[in-house]
Design a protein that fits this description.
two-stranded antiparallel sheet, Spore Coat Polysaccharide Biosynthesis Protein SpsA, Chain A, alpha/beta, globular, single chain
């Protein structure tokens, strides 16, 4: 049996204005009986003992009520990112909620199609050395929005982010919004990184992704596992994305219902 991570953090404090919804993005409906949150919740509890949510202040009371009525409420926690300062700020601003864990999943709040098999593969990925580790599921994409660059020894050397003005190759490796990290030494590494690194050149945010090549350069074993399905890399950043997954999950729901009959 594969050991679970002690905690999964979902930084979901974005305002979700591009979707134009009256609810936070995590609560966007995907099917008649499922939201982004309910789908992610079920998947993550298969791979993590606890889930911690980071939300925007205007949605704090909504999520407090939601978690209070959850059957797993003792394994759920919540914190607020007061200002939208980026994923890194959201993750490490909630440090007290995962500081006692040994391993930590970080999963973007719109990464609805991450598979349980990918989560299990990250947990069971063999480490080549002792020390501190970070495992990143990656998939080969056409026109990646974010591109991971590796050298001939498969070491992570850089991450190009289109939203920060970088240019990605026509074909390249991207992530699926999921990262597994050792907790020991992680906060200290983040503090050192922040002393050396400014906010994003375009967004002005304190981003998490540039931190990963920094770890690779400073003694961490940053390795990747292969994901075959490119849909796992697709987040929900627009109404088009939401409609895509609504159609996909409703179609799958009808197929499963037919098979059950």
């Amino acid at each position: 049996m594969i050991r679970k991570a002690e905690c999964a953090v979902i930084p979901a404090a974005g305002r979700g204005t591009r979707l134009g919804l009256s609810v936070p993005k995590l609560l966007a409906p995907v099917s008649e009986d499922a939201t982004i949150w309910s789908i992610l919740r079920e998947k993550l509890f298969s791979a993590a003992e606890r889930i911690h949510l980071v939300v925007a202040p205007q949605w704090a009371s909504t999520f407090e009520l939601l978690l209070a009525n959850d059957s797993q409420r003792q394994n759920l926690s919540l914190s607020v990112q007061e200002e939208p300062r980026g994923m890194g700020d959201a993750i490490f601003g909630s440090y007290d909620h995962w500081a006692e864990a040994e391993t930590l999943f970080v999963v973007w709040g719109d990464q609805i199609h991450i598979s349980k098999s990918t989560l299990r593969s990250a947990l069971s990925h063999p480490q080549e050395s002792s020390g501190r580790h970070c495992t990143i599921p990656t998939v080969l994409l056409d026109q990646p929005y974010v591109q991971y660059c590796f050298d001939q020894q498969d070491r992570l050397t850089a991450i190009r982010e289109t939203r920060e003005g970088a240019v990605c190759d026509p074909l390249g490796f991207s992530d699926v919004g999921t990262f597994l990290l050792d907790v020991g030494g992680l906060r200290d590494a983040w503090d050192c990184y922040r002393r050396e690194r400014n906010a994003g050149a375009v967004t002005g945010e304190i981003n998490f992704l540039p931190f990963l090549p920094y770890l690779a350069r400073h003694g961490w074993q940053v390795s990747r596992i292969a994901v075959e399905d490119p849909v796992e890399a697709r987040g929900i950043n627009s109404l088009e994305d939401l409609r895509f997954f609504q159609e996909l999950y409703n179609r799958n729901r009808k197929v499963h219902s037919t098979l059950a009959d």
